[in-house]
Write a structure and sequence with these properties.
homotetramer, 209 residues, Arc Repressor Mutant, subunit A, Tetracycline Repressor, domain 2, 0% strand, DNA-binding
Amino acid sequence: MTTWHDMLREKRQETILEAAAQIIARKGYQRATMKEIADAAGIAPGTIYLYFSDKEDLLLSIAEQLVALMPQEVPRAATPAETRRFVQSVLRQQLGLVAEYRPFFEAITAEMWTNETLRTNYLGRVITPILGIIESFLHKGIEAGRVRSLDPQIVSRAMVGTIFLFAMISDTSAEDYLRSPRVEQLIEELTDFFLYGLKQTPDTEVSPA
Amino acid sequence: MTTWHDMLREKRQETILEAAAQIIARKGYQRATMKEIADAAGIAPGTIYLYFSDKEDLLLSIAEQLVALMPQEVPRAATPAETRRFVQSVLRQQLGLVAEYRPFFEAITAEMWTNETLRTNYLGRVITPILGIIESFLHKGIEAGRVRSLDPQIVSRAMVGTIFLFAMISDTSAEDYLRSPRVEQLIEELTDFFLYGLKQTPDTEVSPA
Amino acid sequence: MTTWHDMLREKRQETILEAAAQIIARKGYQRATMKEIADAAGIAPGTIYLYFSDKEDLLLSIAEQLVALMPQEVPRAATPAETRRFVQSVLRQQLGLVAEYRPFFEAITAEMWTNETLRTNYLGRVITPILGIIESFLHKGIEAGRVRSLDPQIVSRAMVGTIFLFAMISDTSAEDYLRSPRVEQLIEELTDFFLYGLKQTPDTEVSPA
Amino acid sequence: MTTWHDMLREKRQETILEAAAQIIARKGYQRATMKEIADAAGIAPGTIYLYFSDKEDLLLSIAEQLVALMPQEVPRAATPAETRRFVQSVLRQQLGLVAEYRPFFEAITAEMWTNETLRTNYLGRVITPILGIIESFLHKGIEAGRVRSLDPQIVSRAMVGTIFLFAMISDTSAEDYLRSPRVEQLIEELTDFFLYGLKQTPDTEVSPA
DNA sequence: GATGAATGAGTGTTCATTCAT
DNA sequence: CATGAATGAACACTCATTCAT
């Protein structure tokens, strides 16, 4: 077994990937140079090619990392109270991931618009699964009468869109919603909004915790 | 008056800008070459420089176009029924703009993540005003007791995030939500979601049209 | 006779040539643009081509102007006193020409080093004639015993080199030797130097005017 | 110690600089292309940029080479006979330098007329020091009564102008005065001319060797 | 004749990638 | 394995020249 050897190799790969994500997130894929990435990783440019086939591979590997991170499950919700818990879980999980792996998300987000391969991968393997989890939950909720009869496809996208926007503005603007304890307030407000909407109705139960 | 001459010049500028937006939206700012843009506009590369100082100017001018498009006003809402109308107006207006000027939005969106100048301009002059309009509406609604006591900053961002996501996936995926009549259904569903949330409550009035 | 017409045409040619010399002298032939020259001449770029075949032609025409200016004669010197007058005449004539047509000289001087055609023309038709006049004078002077037995080719070049250097530094540096009354002092000193050299000898007659 | 490595690097730099001087001397700075220079140096265009920041740097480095070459001293002259030796030394030294590094001189000479930076550097660091040495010598000579009372500023410029002209025509024309043994004759004649001038005087001691 | 908008060939420079050490 | 010097294709931009008006 070259276990020891393999671990070293994997460690080095990770170092490079982190450096790449950092640089690409900041400057964009096109503007990031292999030299810069190598410098940030503390190695020579040529060495990158011993671990990745080319620059594009670096980008796709960053996306792959995100894919690997994505949770396959979210706590099921069976009772009405769990609808709230589900929404909170999704928000907390996703916003938490973004906060932790921000350079990776940013690197991919910035590039996906104009890179077919990347978009397919990212949307298909990162976004779509989340949408699927949410949609699936909504379906069951609607069937069980716990959720109003809304189009799950549309509502799931609205929720992901919200997460997406907060993820993005948190870094690019001064409004850092993802730094705790702000993130907890954010989750609370969004949950409330998603559950009960804008409208004041006489008997809506507001945030029953 | 060289009105005729000026119009010709403006027309040409527009042609170039449209071609540039098209190409940049598809390939990204960095990958788009001046030659390609010139070809798409049906002119020689050098001609672009008679109308724009450089490639960057082309990009900023695309952003400027978007800025110019942004509406300064949205119908005020005074009565409960108008809360619905306001949400619908915002959605219809924004989704409509995106649908019509999609290449412009896409070109800027793709580049803004890694371009400080552009981001400042775009966020500050296109996104922030919309957020402001929504926030202001929510404030008044809350004061008037028409809207539940939610954080306007957060809710406005959730709504814009939703719009943003539909705008983006509409072109890049097979799911074209913005082509009528689907867009009308989308607006209806989102309005409903935003107004009343997910939760089924015994006496929530659902979509009273 | 299109005399009137021809004069107009010639006048316009001259205007363009002066503008060209001005710009080219300042920025160099390569850096000078046809647009700049046209602007300086108060016409449109295209118009230049009605008077000159191309940019190179402009340069060669400037050289041609200098050729036309060159005097064919310099006062003969027969008596000893006239040796001084000859040297003074050459200096005054050449330095005067340079002072008056400086842009033309500068434009050509800057470009001749790297332009075969120009160099051939300029050296052959402007410099060589002057050298010839001086050489011829020296020959006769030597034969007549008025001038020491020096190599006329070499001495004539030394004199022209001196003129050349003063012509050039007069504009480029702060040392403007060509502005009167300094030029008169310059001529006087140079004449003295050329006639009697550096060396203090007991009975050398110094500047007997 | 990367001494060996450093030497290789320096050698490569020199090769590029020589190629650049060659090409620029022949075609002029503007007309010389980086591709041509690279070809002449036997490398790829991109490689030049590993040694020089840009084309301008190449030109300034050529000038810098000349600056480095300039002698700081010339033999002092104390006795009358040494006046002759001083003049000869200056001529021999300067003409020798030019002959050896002609491409460097030509490249700079051709460009300096229209390049402010270059002119300042070249005149200030190459020409002015020589003028200073000559002027200083003349001053002392005049004080000591060995040299006639001439304006040192003017005479030094006349001498440098002479050197300048021979340097230039030697390559550009068919008259190659700088190839030995002609250069020795040139030095002899010029020394004689500078020391005693044109005028035949009854008792001037001619070239006492 | 005069114009100046349009052209498109030409060039400096960057940077992903290779490969001799 | 790691290096980093060398490569050369690619691209933004300039400007002499043309020609429809």
